[in-house]
Each structure stands twice: as structure tokens, then as C-alpha cells.
Amino acid sequence: MTAHFTKKRLIFGLISMSAIVGVLLLLWHFIPKALTQNTLTEAKEHLEEWVTESPMRRPNSSALRLQDLGAELGINLDIPFPETYPIPPEKRNQFTEINGDLARYIEALEQSADDQIPPIPESLQNYLTVHRDTLAEIRAHVLSGEPMDWGMHYDLNLDIDFEPNYRGFTGLLNLTHLLTLDAMERNLAGDASTALANLETIAQLNQQIQQKELNLWLNLIISRNIERRLVQNVRKLNNLPQDWQISRSDTVFYRRIANNFQNESALTSWNFLVNMDSDWLEDYGESASLLTRLKFLFIGPYVRLVVADNWRIGQNLPDALSQADFCTTDLEQFKQENPEIKPSGWNYLASEMLQWDSEWLIWAGLVLQWELTDKVQKIKHLAQQEGQFPASITGLNHSICPDSRWVYTVNPDGTASILLEGVPPAFSDPDVFRYQIRQ
Description:
Order of helices and strands: HHHHHHHHHHHHEEE
Number of domains: 3
Strand content: under 5%
Largest sheet: 3 strands, antiparallel
Shape: globular
């Protein structure tokens, strides 16, 4: 009797426990959906406003002309929409054959902390010889001032599933590498004017990327990589006129970061929160194992909460970043003092998601990098006038950051150096603001 009673209690306990677990799983599945409903509404409103202001459209004739010129170099600039643009096989093969050497040369330039320009490999010299006229046409076209509209490359319908069209501008990145290569060759040949024109062409193409309405995170990363190389390569040019100029990104970089983060958060939120269940069924369907289904039951609701947390950060970023002065801000302390832009404590996937703080740091550093480039070119100009590096230069120590100053030194070996003293607390590596000049 006791054994029978104990067995009944055990069965009842198992049934009760199963019921509790089932209820908890249901709550875990549906409560995050309810909690993220507000995020879904806000993301939808953001996207609807975005679509209204920037409807889908084709590129204009100026952008398509650039695509034609890129094809002559063997590069697909990914401008036409929605067609796939054909690249002549012969041209494509010519670029493919030198692309490895080109990437290594660009990397060597980037790693150099002085104004020495590496010798150009023969394969790249031969490519430039063949395509010199096309590069000249590209310079003339971009610098003509003719408005260039890339078009709007996405198809967004808020009532059905959609996937944003991530135009990474990798083709444009390749084009900037070729223009950089030509600039370095011209500089070595003493043609400072054409060298600077090549880099100005890169600068204006980069501004096209920044001004494009579909500004997503990948675009921002490519744009800052172009800008970082641009500021370093302008520094290497010799014999520039005293009144030289080049287009550069504005110093209010936090707006760019906040805007891109908001756009990406809106697209991610909508895509995850609306389409998660249907996408999972499409990927796995009836073939999913029991373990996979259980993983989805546990992970799916958590990912919803992570996405909503990222959307919250995106909404708060513009106001918070407008208060951050990169000259004085300690980034970690700033995040502690502004919890509205920090991931929630339970958001362990934050490191896998978009990180606005690393982008803020890079763009802030670029402001000082441009300042360094201006100083270097001033030193070169005075050295060219006097036939040697001057012992001191009035006003050279001034920096945009009040607590920092540039220190200029003429070295015993005949070179000159400049470095930033009092590097702002946000930057951990002072060597990135140090440069050596060889006459």
C-alpha cells in the first residue's frame, strides 16, 4: 500500500514538474515577445520615415559612368541596380592578377611610420602603364563636380519579410587602392599635383559613401578605413604647394556613428523580431532535431531581448555622444556615467554585436591624425624653402586638444620627428601620433 502510494506521488510529482516546466517555457517564449513589442513599433516607425525620405531609385548617369570606368580597370563598383554589371573577362583577369600585390603594397604603406615610400613592384608598374588613361578619366570625372547619386539600393516592405541590401562598396575600396598606388608613383616621379589629385579623388569618393542614405555599419567601417589610409598617405607626399587642400570628414563624427547605429539597429530589430520564427522554420523545418528545437526555445527569446537592448542604446546614442569630448573623455568612465548607452548586465552577446565605442575611438583619432598630417606638411614646406629642417617652428605645437601639444625635434641623423605630448586619455597607444620625416 505504501509502495503504491509512493509510486502515485512520484507520478504526480513528475506530471506537476513537467507542467511547471511547460508553463515556464511558454512564459519564456511569449513574455520576451511582449516586452519587445515597443521596440518593434519604434523600429517600424524609424524605417517608415527612412523609406519616405529616401525612396528606392536608380543611380544617375554620373554614377553609372564611374561604373563604366571601373569596368575598364577590371573592378565591379556595384553601382547599377538591380542588374549585375558585366566586367570584361580580360579586364577582370588583369586586375585579379595584381590584386594580391596591390593589397600587400597598400598594407606596407599603412604600416610605415615615416614618409618613406616603398618601391613599387614591377607587376603594379605594368598595370599602371596600361591603365593610366582610365585612371586619369576617373580623376577628371570625380573632380568635375558633377553630382553623383548612387541610388537607393534596398527593397523594404514592412508587411513582408525583407533583407537589407548591404552594399559594402568593396569595389570602391579597390578603386581607392589603385588611386593610392598611382599617387605614390606620381610622388616618386616628382609630380605632386597629380599625386594630390589622386588622393582628392579618393576623398570625394569617400564622402559619397558617408552621404549615402543607406548608411549601415559596414559602410561606416569601409569609410573610416579609406579615411585612415588617406590621412596617412597625404602625409607622405612631397613638394606640395603651401596652400594645398584636400577634402576630409567633418569633425562632428559622433553624428555619423549614431546615425549608422540607429539605422542598423532598426533593420536588425525588424528582421529579428518579425521574421525570427519564420526564418528558423525555413532553415530547419521538420528536419530539425529535438536538441535544435530546444536550443531555439531557449535562445530565441533571449536574442529578442538582446536586439531590443541594442535598439535602446541606438536611441540614446545621439544625445549621449554629443556630450563626449574626445580630448578629455575617458571612454570607459564615460560609459559608466551614461548607463543608457551601455548594454544591460544580462546582455552577454553585446561583444558580438555592433560596438559603437570602438568606432568612436577610431574617428576621434582621425581628427588628430589630420592635425598631424597638417603639421608634417608644414615642416616639409619650410624645409623645402630653407634647404634643411628649421630648428624650431612658431605655432607648430598648438593642438585642437587644449591639454595636448605637438613636439617637434630635429634629430642628429638629419631627420625630423613630431609627436603628440599629452595624448588624450581615450587613446592607449601614443605611438600612433608620432611621425618621422626624412628630407
